Amino acid sequence: MTSGVIGRIFDERTNQVLVDVLILLDATRRDISVSSQGRFVLSNLPAGRHRLEVRAIGYRPHVIELTLTVGQVLERQFAMVFTGDRLPELAVEARNSKLLPRYNDFERRRSSGIGAYITRDEIRSRGYMSMGDALRTIKGVRVNCGVVECLIHMTRAAPGCYPVYYVDGRKARSFAESTPISDVQGIEVYRGAAEMPGEFAGDGAMCGVISIWTRSAP
């Protein structure tokens, strides 16, 4: 009487099933079909110790050691850890978007046409190196850099009145204007009360609001 393994393969963060995988049993490749639910079955296995490995492009190999008794069928979960290795940038971006459902707020407000916005595509295509580089391209925003730091000031705001910052939907004390922009997914800029969305009303309406969305998951 033989034994077997039933497995499910999925992304540990998004829970999206993975079907384009390579399955190795005791270092030997097995041509096993994976269902649309990310499930596979290894049957007719001899009892004893086995090494089961699952590989997928863009993910760390997942290896488990098994000890099967005669007639035993084990169920195992393969939560794959994403690395992005050997994946095209667009595929990595698509996965990041799934980890950022909060980014929908950015798109919703951008579609209103009120305020100023900088998207990830613009950041890449225009070669911005820092937050200051990007923000100084927006009309009505002044970026004044000293020896140590840069300060952002809305031209409509009174002297000494500086914008309120949000990072990933949460109010922040600041967000260094000299910070490299490689981890930024999008930027919203509201230069005064006339273009302030309701969710930001009362928070620096006269001084402006800058909302930054990062590419990393919260």
Keywords:
Ferric Hydroxamate Uptake Protein, Chain A, domain 1; mainly beta; Immunoglobulin-like; 218 residues; 2 domains; elongated; five-stranded mixed β-sheet; single chain; four-stranded antiparallel β-sheet
Percent helix, as a range, is 10-25%
Q: How many helical elements? A: 4
How many DSSP E strands? 14
* Beta-strand percent range: 35-45%
Radius of gyration: 25 Å
CATH fold topology of the largest domain: Ferric Hydroxamate Uptake Protein, Chain A, domain 1
Shape: elongated
Distance between the termini: 48 Å
The topology string of helices and strands comes to EEEEEEEHHEHHEEEEEE
Low-confidence stretches: none
- CATH 4th-level superfamily of the largest domain: TonB-dependent receptor, plug domain
Q: What is the CATH architecture assignment of the largest domain?
A: Beta Complex
Task: Give the strand line-up of the largest sheet.
Answer: 8-13-14-11-12
User: From the helix content, strand content and strand pairing, which structural class follows?
Assistant: mainly beta
Describe the structure.
There is one protein chain. With 218 residues, the protein is mainly beta. The protein has 2 domains: 3-80, Immunoglobulin-like (Sandwich); 101-214, Ferric Hydroxamate Uptake Protein, Chain A, domain 1 (Beta Complex). The protein is built from 4 helices and 14 strands. A 5-stranded mixed sheet has the order 8-13-14-11-12. A 4-stranded antiparallel sheet has the order 3-2-5-6, with no helix packed on it. Strands 4-1-7 form a 3-stranded mixed sheet, with no helix packed on it. A hairpin with a 6-residue loop joins strand 5 and strand 6. The protein is elongated and about 80 Å long.
